[in-house]
Design goal:
The complex is a heterodimer of chains A (170) and B (288). Chain A is of the alpha+beta class and 170 residues long. Chain A has five helices and seven strands, in the order H-E-E-E-E-E-E-E-H-H-H-H. The relative contact order of chain A is 0.11. A three-stranded mixed sheet of chain B has the order 1-3-2, with helices on both faces. Chains A and B meet through helix 2, helix 3, helix 4 and helix 5 of A and helix 4, helix 5 and helix 10 of B.
């Protein structure tokens, strides 16, 4: 009898270890860090799309397998997403610190921008720095172009697909 | 007894001052002086210094500082190469790697410096630079991704921002945002110039460089690039330049860097059978 009890308790403890070991991140909240991303029925880019999530959206982690994470959205949709599309902190900001310290780069403070160079120009402080440091117009324009340089997420996605990278790995 | 009472009052005031009650600072210093205890006087002064520590650097300030540092990098390294197809390609590789970093909100962008030296740099707010000389040594896209991973790691770990924080602390700048830069552009210039000195002349501490090597390789591998590609590049550079002739004096030698990357591959279980993409790099990543 005692041996049967010991066996039963041992099974329960082993089961608990396996259960928690299998899904260590259960209940964790992560955030979508690409403009849009697709939830798929399985763990490959060939599996059917079962839903879409947007930049900054919070999702609950259900399980992980390799480079893929199974998640549940606040709307209840479940599916697999490539793990590098998720971040631990909300990339869309909104934290108390960023609010206190002023506007984020994404919001683009137009009043702090001058139009002396490039398509958008340097901001006021770096323009003043350039004046004091004697930076040539050619170099100011190069940095202004760099500051304004953007590539849409869709093109990065296409680049990954073409190279068999990220979720498109063969 | 009276001295003891003063000491207790001073100690309470110090605790309050450290907790951020600036109004208590004069009272703390006064009570400490009256206690006749030099240690207490020192403690109240320490609390004052602590209270004057600069606040964290916000996005707007980081962007301005990063842009100003970028101006110096471009000026000192011969300007940038404007070949739109190649610039677009290196930015796509950089964006792909940056997506996996711990600071995905930073708008990483890459420029190619018109300079034959073998080097790469990163300024705050995601300004990444690679020289024409380094691009010429790279043989595949996985190596380029690891170089960008290294630079992105410097930004995500805020290595240069830490230097800037220290400069601001020494300069006694304790206000939020860019107010100090507007009030006195000379102070802002000093902050930027000191950061440029670290970035271009003195280099980071060796442990920060090896941390960036290890984390950078992890970032590139997360995208699917071959994790051992970076070891290949560093090994070729060691043969080309000699082990002690790393990029700048304070960098660890190449052997230490290779060891750091190999350790990262082992401890993180990174794949060494990932994507290399030598053909895509040869077609799109070569500067004229």
């Amino acid at each position: 009898m005692k041996r049967a009890n010991a066996w039963w308790y041992g099974t329960v403890i082993l089961g608990a270890i396996l259960w928690f070991g299998h899904s260590p991140a259960w209940g964790e909240t992560l955030y979508v860090q690409t403009k849009t991303a697709q939830l798929r029925a399985g763990k490959t880019s060939l599996d059917s799309v079962v839903g879409n999530v947007r930049y900054g959206e919070a999702v609950e982690v259900l399980s992980r397998d390799g480079n893929w994470t199974e998640v549940k959205t606040s709307g209840g949709a479940k599916g697999w997403i490539f793990s590098s599309k998720l971040a631990q902190s909300n990339p869309s900001g909104g934290s108390e610190t960023s609010a206190r310290l002023g506007s984020s780069m994404r919001s683009g403070d137009a009043s702090a921008v001058t139009a002396s160079t490039g398509t958008r120009g340097l901001d006021k402080s770096s323009e003043a720095y350039a004046d004091r440091a004697g930076i040539l117009p050619r170099d100011r324009q190069a940095v202004a172009r760099m500051s304004a340089y953007e590539i849409p997420d869709e093109e990065v996605e296409e680049f990954l697909k073409d190279g068999g990278l990220g979720e498109y790995a063969k | 007894m009276r001295n003891n009472r003063s000491a207790i009052v001073a100690l309470c005031a110090v605790l309050l001052a450290e907790a951020g009650c600036a109004e208590m600072q004069p009272a703390a210093e006064d009570a400490a002086r009256r206690s006749g205890n030099p240690r207490m006087v020192e403690a109240t002064h320490g609390a004052s210094t602590l209270a004057a520590s600069p606040l964290p650097i916000g996005d707007e300030e980081e962007k301005s500082i990063g842009e100003a540092i970028a101006l110096q990098v471009v000026a000192r390294y011969g300007g940038t190469i404007e070949q739109p197809d190649v610039v677009r390609y290196v930015n796509l590789v950089g964006k792909a790697v940056a997506k996996t970093s711990d600071r995905p909100d930073v708008p990483f962008r890459v420029a190619i410096l018109n300079h034959d030296s073998i080097n790469s740099f990163a300024a705050p707010s995601g300004y990444i630079f690679v020289t024409r000389g380094l691009l010429k040594q790279i043989q595949n896209e996985a190596e380029l991704a690891a170089v960008f991973g290294h630079e992105i790691a410097h930004v995500s770990q805020k290595h240069l921002l830490d230097v800037i924080q220290r400069t601001k602390r020494v300069a006694g700048i304790g206000e939020e945002g860019l107010g100090y830069a507007t009030k006195d552009p000379a102070v802002f210039k000093n902050v930027v110039d000191n950061a440029v000195k670290t970035l271009l002349d003195e280099g980071f501490d060796q442990d920060k460089e090896t941390e960036a090597d290890a984390l950078g390789d992890v970032l590139a591998a997360r995208v699917g690039y071959d994790a051992s590609a970076y070891v290949g590049l560093l090994t070729r550079l060691r043969e080309l330049k000699g082990d002690d002739q790393a990029f700048i004096k304070t960098h660890p030698n190449f052997s230490m860097r290779i060891n750091a990357v190999q350790e990262a591959i082992r401890t993180n279980g990174l794949q060494s059978n990932g994507v290399l993409l030598p053909d895509r790099f040869a077609q799109r990543g070569k500067v004229v």
